[in-house]
Amino acid sequence: MHLRIRAAATAIVVATVGAVAVPATPASANVSQGYVTGSGTWTDDWNDEGPISASTRSYSNVVAMWQKILVADGYLAASGLDCRFGAVTTAATKRWQSDRGLVSDGVVGPKTLAKAATRLSRYEDDSWFYYDGLGSNFIYFGRLPDGRWDMSPGLDLEWEPLSYTSATFNICS
What we know:
The protein is of the alpha+beta class. The protein has 4 helices and 5 strands; from the N terminus they run ααααβββββ. The protein has a 5-stranded antiparallel beta sheet, covered by helices on one side. The longest helix has 20 residues, at 2-21.
């Protein structure tokens, strides 16, 4: 009987440790990683990103990415690219969201980025992508081997990772 109790206790410990060691859901990106990032299939990388807004992470390379999307879709003038989520970017974001049936709150969170991601396509392989904007307005992106996304906002081919915490593009004023 003592052996049976010990075996049962061991089974419970093994099951408990196994439950803790193996996550129930796949790992997902979060802002604390500091970058737009993903792993595995690229099609869901943006579905768990953000938020950025006029009051949250309002000056960064991710803001430049969003502004570039707004430019590509005709909601923001190219001269508005400055990595700052100000009043003009907020108004353009609200129009973009409204036109796509989203809550037009001016906050770029997972739902807004997931909707934008429907316009992403693979360019050559699983490390190069493009956003298909209005007309022939394309934005090219890369996904680095560590999963971080990067882009070049201008013609100078200045590729930088899409950071939530820094604004390192030349266009960032």
